[in-house]
Amino acid sequence: MRSPVRTRQDLDDFRVLVVEDEHLYATAIAREISRHGLQCDIAFSAGEALDRVQSATYQVILLDHRLPDDDGIRLIPILLARQTSASLIVMTAYESIDSAVQAIRQGADDYLVKETSLDPIVNAVLEVRRKHEIHSGQARWDEHRRGGLLGSSQAINRVREEIRKVATRRDTTVLLTGETGAGKEVAARYLHSLSAPEGSPFIAVDCVALPSPLVESLLFGHEKGAFTGADRTKHGAFQEAGEGTIFLDEIGEMDLSLQGKLLRVLETRSFQRVGSVREYPVKARVVAATNRDLLEEVQQGRFRFDLYQRLAVFPVHLPPLRERGEDVLVLARHFVSFFSRKMGVRVKPLGREVEAYLMSYDFPGNVRELKNVIERAIILTDSDTIEPRHLPERILRRDSDPRRSSTRPSLPFDFIPGVDTLETLEFKMIRNALDQAHGVKSEAARLLGISRFQLLRRLEKHRLKKDDG
After folding, report:
1. What distance in Å separates the CA atoms of residue 235 and residue 218, rounded to the nearest whole number?
2. Looking at residue 347, what is its pLDDT?
3. Is residue 281 predicted with pLDDT exceeding 90?
4. What is the dihedral sign for C-alpha 72, 88, 10, 147?
5. Angle at 238 between CA 234 and CA 239, to 5 degrees
6. Under a CB-based contact definition with an 8 Å cutoff, are residues 115 and 154 in contact?
7. What sign does the CA torsion over 101, 105, 110, 111 have?
8. pLDDT above 70 coverage of the chain, percent
9. How far apart are CA 320 and CA 202, in angstroms?
10. Which of the four CATH numbers 1.10.10.10, 3.30.300.30, 3.20.20.70, 3.40.50.300 does domain 154-319 have?
11. pLDDT, greater one: 23 or 462
């Protein structure tokens, strides 16, 4: 039976530092704390404590009042200056109200008297951990709702930077482009979280889901009696959005007749409800998204050029997942954590073999497909480990994807699942691609489905020659 959620990854983020010169006592505290699955380091002096906080991050510091080389109370602000998010608890063998007051004033969170039982100290640490789990868990859920753009690839860093820059320009219309599932709504919500007033709504409208008359009513609202079935006045998305964000998804699918009305709204920053002549101001930021080439749509007569110009004031292109390198693993780990919490189960971090399969797949459905793969895998596993057998057949059989190039290098013939590391697999694939491309770097990068710059970075990492070619 699965346990309530508490992943190993969560606990790995939580570290405790015991600063205590009595070796037996310090070791006993560390042993008891470690029994609860937490990492615990020991410093036997003030000098050693200062070295520790320089090289690691701690959530709790247990500090002895009297140390052989310094006074613990004097050390408090110095430690907290280097560990700004840590909870500091002073331990003393001698109860003193004056010392307790002084410790709290210096920034300590608690002041405990050493007793025969270690329970008060351990319980204080566990209480900090409980609050930390609540806070970090909430932060992760908030991040998911905001749509934080995860990853460290050059491609996604560029997107984040562009969004941060345009966030301060509330009146600027943003056009998000990219393949289906690349994360356009995620990017829109990220922009909303950076720029909209606290608590303001994010209103998403799917321009392809409804017939044009209904989309018009959905966007602008309608007056009672405006059409058959309009038995009451209804606010539209532009009014509901207030000072927030209105997200027009799949704008390339919008009917031409409605495109003209939307153009007028963007030009005048005002709208009329269906069946009314009254003008209402538009206060929301407008963000549109499409997986189509709108300039191609303009040439084919399916999209208005003037509307394109109005929408594409600040275009942002969302790269497909296959161009984001190891962001695949960053996102996969995020989804494992997210769905573990959502389903109330415990799932271990992904193993090397599973990660290798994920990295070798193109993900034509992009981030959305990866998210679905991880959710499915967690549902299928009856233990706390995701195994290759829990992945879809299309990922296990790399040649089954019709969008994969037939010239794309396959897994090296001597790849041994469960033995080769992901780094070894990457090295082998790069060597394989270079052999197929006869040493031409740009061709090898094409075969691997990455940019030439990304290939050069990997050549440097693996200490392979990266002369131009």
Report:
1. 8
2. 87
3. yes
4. negative
5. 55
6. no
7. negative
8. 85
9. 24
10. 3.40.50.300
11. 23
